[in-house]
Amino acid sequence: MIAAGEPAPDFTLRNQDGEKVSLSDFRGEKVLLVFYPLDFSPVCSDQLSLYQEVKPEIEAKGVRMIGISVDSGFAHKAFQEKLGIDTLLLADFEPKGEVARAYGAYIDRVGHANRSLVLVDEQGTIEWVHESPTPLEIPGANLIFDALSA
Amino acid sequence: MPPAGPEDHRRGEGPLLIVYADLGCPHCASAWAEISAREATIVFRHFPVASKHPRSPALHAAAEAAGQQGRFFDLVDSLYADRGHVDDPHLWQRAEDLDLDLDRFETDRRSGTVAARVRRDFESGIRAGVTGTPAIFSSASDVDPT
């Protein structure tokens, strides 16, 4: 897993609406990258639903929250609609998992990212990371707020 | 996590169990009968996740409003016992069955005070690391509800 203090690898991916989004678009803002395994899986549904509930508080701290998985933009759109969430979702679809690999969040044997959080500061440097012990474990939102108040 | 206090909804006697629960959550509903049967002091804290259970905010507000007339756990029990009837007319019927003052119930459940009370519990659950419901804490550790 990438470590705090390292430069955040830039990337350009398509979002749930097919638009290209780059990490560097958010330079000057803090960004929370939420790597998660798969749209529509039960644990990912719980995680993104939970984070949606605290998204206003995260944004109030000047942080943009972005979800990333290996699913396509079309799947992301349907996932957003199913959950009723408006978190920006990016498709790490082709080459599959390339961004997750760059952040050390990819699990080769299962073909998707681990559940990992990466906080990138305003200058594009990794400020904090959290990697779940297993993809089945949701990082509590308290970890995010602890990181933001550290 | 804030310790149990006088502002919490509590019932029963015995070891303390603090339960973060979502009134729209089927897992909570199936666990509630077992939790309630324990010889314990049960503290109920609101943890509605609207994007999973869209009616949850309304149900928690209704329970809180019932609580303002002393019938919090009665409405919680009612909602968990019958999850199929949770629209507004069903809430009015439940309130009537509990002999609540309906006008007051309607005003209270839509009030900012009630919304803030529900949100306060939710945020305390977030601070405690709750990621799913039901989440149960004893004074010493998590307790498996099953």
List keywords for this structure.
heterodimer; A: 150 residues; alpha+beta; 7-stranded mixed β-sheet; 4 helices; 26% strand; globular; B: 146 residues; 4-stranded mixed β-sheet; 6 helices; disordered C terminus
Outline the structure in words:
The complex is a heterodimer of chains A (150) and B (146). Helices cover 29% and strands 26% of the residues of chain A. Chain A is an alpha+beta fold and 150 residues long. In chain A, the strands form two sheets. A seven-stranded mixed sheet of chain A has the order 2-1-5-4-3-8-9, with helices on one face. A two-stranded antiparallel ribbon of chain A has the order 6-7. With 146 residues, chain B is α+β, with helices and mostly antiparallel strands. In chain B, 47% of the residues lie in helices and 13% in strands. Chain B is built from six helices and four strands; from the N terminus they run ββαβαααααβ. Chain B has a four-stranded mixed sheet with strand order 1-3-2-4, with helices on both faces. In chain B, β2, α1 and β3 form a beta-alpha-beta unit. The longest helix of chain B has 16 residues. The two termini of chain B are 23 Å apart. The interface between A and B is medium-sized, with 19 and 13 residues.
Please, what is the average pLDDT of chain A? 97
Low-confidence parts of chain A: none
Strand arrangement within the widest β-sheet of chain B reads 1-3-2-4
Share in helix of chain B: 40-55%
Number of helices of chain A: 4
Q: Structural class of the helices, strands and pairings of chain B? A: alpha+beta
Q: What distance separates the N and C termini of chain B?
A: 23 Å
Multimer state: heterodimer
Q: Give the number of DSSP strands of chain A.
A: 9
| Rough outline of chain B | globular
Element-by-element helix/strand order of chain A = EEEHEHEHEEEEH
* Percent of sequence in beta strands of chain A: 25-35%
Outline of chain A: globular
Proportion of β residues of chain B?
5-15%
Summarize the biggest pleated sheet of chain A. 7 strands, mixed
